[in-house]
Specification:
The complex is a heterodimer of chains A (about 800) and B (about 240).
Chain A lengths: L1 H13 L1 H39 L5 E4 L9 H10 L3 E7 L1 E9 L9 E6 L12 E2 L7 E5 H7 L6 E5 L6 E9 L7 E5 H8 L5 E6 L5 H12 L2 E4 H48 L1 H9 L4 H38 L13 H26 L21 H20 L6 H38 L1 H10 L3 H39 L4 E5 L9 H7 L8 E8 L4 E5 L4 E3 L9 E4 L2 E4 L2 E3 L4 E4 L1 H7 L4 E7 L7 H12 L5 E4 L1 H44 L1 H9 L4 H37 L13 H18 L1 H9 L2 H6 L2
Parallel strand pairs in A: 4-9, 6-8, 14-19, 15-18
Antiparallel strand pairs in A: 1-10, 1-11, 2-10, 3-4, 3-7, 5-8, 6-9, 7-8, 12-20, 12-21, 13-14, 13-20, 15-19, 16-17
Helix pairs in contact in A: 1-2, 1-9, 2-7, 2-9, 2-10, 2-18, 7-10, 7-14, 7-18, 9-10, 11-12, 11-20, 12-13, 12-14, 12-20, 13-20, 14-18, 14-20, 18-20, 18-21, 18-22, 20-21, 20-22
Chain B lengths: L1 E12 L6 E12 L3 E5 L6 H8 L7 E6 L2 E2 L5 H11 E4 L11 H12 L5 H11 L14 H14 L4 E5 L7 H16 L5 E4 L3 H4 L4 E6 L2 E7 L3 H11 L4
Parallel strand pairs in B: 3-8, 3-9, 6-7, 7-8
Antiparallel strand pairs in B: 1-2, 1-4, 4-5, 9-10
Classes of the chains: A alpha+beta (about 800), B alpha/beta (about 240).
InterPro entries (chain A): ABC3_permease_C, MacB_PCD, Macrolide_Exporter_MacB
Protein name (chain A): ABC transporter permease
Membrane topology (chain A): Multi-pass membrane protein
Chain lengths: ~800, ~240
Amino acid sequence: MSGMLRLTLRTARANLTRSLLSSLAVVLGVAFVAGSLMFTDGLEKAMTGHVAEQYRNIDVEVTSMTQSSDASANDLAARVRKIDGVRAAEPTWTLFYTGLATADGRKIAGEHRSRTVPADPALRSVEAREGRLPEKSGEVVLDRETALREGLEIGDKLLISNVGGDPRTYGLVGLTIAEGPGATIFMTTADIAAMAGYPADTVIVDAAEGVTNEDLAARISAATGVEAYGHDELVRRAEDAAVGDAETFRNGLLAFGVIAVCMAAFVIANTFTIVLAQRTREIALLRLVGARRGQVFRSVVAEAAVIGLGGSALGLAVGVLLAYGLPTVMSSFGVTDVSPLITTRTLLVALAVGVGVTVLAALLPARRGTAVPPVAALSDAAVQVARPTGRVRRVAGPALLAIGGVVLAGSSGTGRIEVVALGAVLAVTGFLLLSPIAVPFLVRVLGRPLALLGGATVSLALANAVRNPRRIAATTNALVVGVTLIGTFTLIAKSAEAPAERRAAEKMSAQFLITDSAGLGILPGNVFAALAREPQLAPARPDYRTFDQATGWEVHTGTSTAVTADVGVPVGGTITLRGKKYEVESIAPGSLTVWLTPEDITTAFPDPTLTELQVDPAPGVSTTDARTALDRALAATPTAVAYDKEQYAKSLNANLNQGLGAVTALLALAVIIALVGVANTLTLSVVERTRENSLLRAVGLTRRQLRLTLSAEALVLALTGTLIGIALSSAIALAALRSIEMHGRSLALVMPWDRLAVLLVVAAAAALAASVLPARRAVRHPIAANLAAE
Amino acid sequence: MTALQAAGLSKVYGSGPSAVAALNGVDVTFEAGRFHAIMGASGSGKSTLLHCLAGLDRPTGGSVRIGDADLTRLSDDKLTLLRRDHVGFVFQKFNLLPVLTARENILLPLAIAGRRPDQQWFDQVVAAVGLTDRLGHRPSELSGGQQQRVAVARALITRPWVIFADEPTGNLDSRSGQEVLGLLRDAVTMLGQTVVMVTHDLNAAAHTDRVAFLKDGRFAASVDHPTPDAIVGVLARLEPVR
């Protein structure tokens, strides 16, 4: 075996370019997996480190889970202070969806949060990186990232408000580190208490000398009946949550890693099949001089292992680059200060994945490719005869395709996405089995117009492309799978997005809609008054909501008095709310809800919630002027945003688009690996056709024409794969949309032609790029030497 | 009239002390409308000479003229176009593209050039090589002799200035070999073509009008209207049996 091993290594080294090519797919797959692991390990470390930092000076935290109106937490703090062993205790708030704007009314978008700076320095876990912490009312500290991004400096004035609350002006006195995706704002206890408007449910405690945190926590729990945890327990719980978050994120990334690795396996298997076919005579010669079949097989598997090892090493290196690149991308999600972590586990996983996938993918080709009779060494078979498509494929392919199609069609209205997934997997598998017949057929059909345009060179390219049906099928299949994945996500996302415009149109009766930036449906009541002061705006139509304790009815805003059927009052009857009588004018769908005019609601209820406002320009005022007036009116309310129809539809789709962007970027790797496969196949075909190409050059094919031939071959492969993928994804997306069709509400399949066109163009351009190196190689061959070569 | 002429032709492989001169100043002229053979022992440079004459390889020194073109002064593209339009080739093997039918292989130079074939000429050529009923077959479905006849037809289809043949009978049984030689002979006699053939087969050389002999990369001798005996005589003189 050692002799065979030496031969294996020599072969691998002699075919270095070929080996590198086959390992490129491994490199990309391993790089992604390793990069994801390194990044998420770093993320986990940063997140756990962060939470530990947040509890730095908290010995015990007391959190009242049940918020009852009478158990004021200020009282809670007072009660805790009296307990023996407590040196200091203060109430603390964390407010989410804080509104933030510069003093001139420029709103800063994002999910901001406000936190408390305890008065007692011994209880503070936050510190100012620049400037100082807030010491008196009206001072705040902001995270450095937000300040940098928004160009804010110490000394600037900021407008800050709780969601639904009135804003107040604060002075920026220092900068600190961020805790989340949006801005993090720190303010004094008095300020945050005033902004929150409700008592704190959390009290933080500093233990006296000689008391352990755990003992004190137990003592506080016993005395107040409220849950209290010691420092270590707090950190542990927060870390668990952080690790869980990192874990979820890691699993998400790794799912795409698995796709990329499967794609790489496809490409490797195909590469080995081709390489071994080309080595038929070499292998036969080995057999002729006495190598057993098992020996040859093992030598091929060993070669795969060597390539896998090399690919993994390179992949790890690329993965490090990737992991360092990811934080810049992720910073938009609020993940900052993450430096990738390289662990032994990551190294082992990367090697195992690289070597394992390469060896596994090479097993089947190795078994087939080494089944060569020794006499093959003596024969003069210059051209490989392609194996015909097996009966299993001919029968199972159409069968699976048909079953998959039926399942997809039958999933309509079931609301079960897993049925769609099953149908999709069956249909795609069926197609893959059938591909050695289907792909060459499609290539011929698609290539016909190209051949008419391109003449003899393109005809030649087409003939070359389909000469080995299995090879072309295996090459395009990787592309088909990648494009199907991207296509399905794109089509579903774009179809789901289309109704947003309709929804926006249905909802918006006026030109502008004013709502809160967090989408919670809570606006400060004074916004209505602020709009009323602008003469360039028509009177705004507010939407109030409230709840009537006495009747248990939801109270909504309508144009007239209406009730749902289960309120039990017919049209013309009267309902009584807070001692006032209203005549019911219509019945509306819904449950236990009544509709009153805005005036009726504000008169009857002391503090109804203002959810949103719709407003038109005053008669004769241009949209632009109205918009200016609107922005002026809302300048003092950081949480309020005004949309026109287009902006509102966009805001409804913002998350969807962000998600689609991320998924597409991650799946793009799969498509890139598939295109590496196209380049692989072309390169190997060029090697195989060296003499043919020399003959063509001898009888008058110019270098340009030879390049064109190869480009055309790559192009037709890429276009066929992409079109098949788009067709499959359309069917899957259609089924998926049909499956969630319920109560007559359905999503129509929207074909985003622009995106699909981009996909085609990108695939075509990439294929052309993929043909550059093989073509250069083909063109460089000296004609005479190759014609003479045996 | 001179169809093809080499002057001071040399071809050196490698450089420095390891340099090997395959051709060492060859001066040779090939008359138009005649059937020429190039002979010589293995390593005498006859294949290199053919490649240089045909514009498949670039000589290190000297010049090659086909018709009025100096091959050594042409760019790769011009040279390719010259081969396409004015030179025909018949090689020992790998003469045909496996993915094309016999008809497509014959028409290949015209297809590459984007030119329409002259149907009458095509029919005449195909009839001459006796392939009329085989045009739809791929090379793998043809015998060695038939494949070589397709190659001859491809060489003739452009009515080239010169046809180069490199051991065209080397891979064939003697009957097929005779047929192919007969075809080349007919191309010269009946169609007025110029054929230059490298061979080491005495019988093949005996079909030609003139044999040029190479020794150690130099022009050594020539025999007009050769007979096998005359060729054996020259060879014996050039490579004395020890």
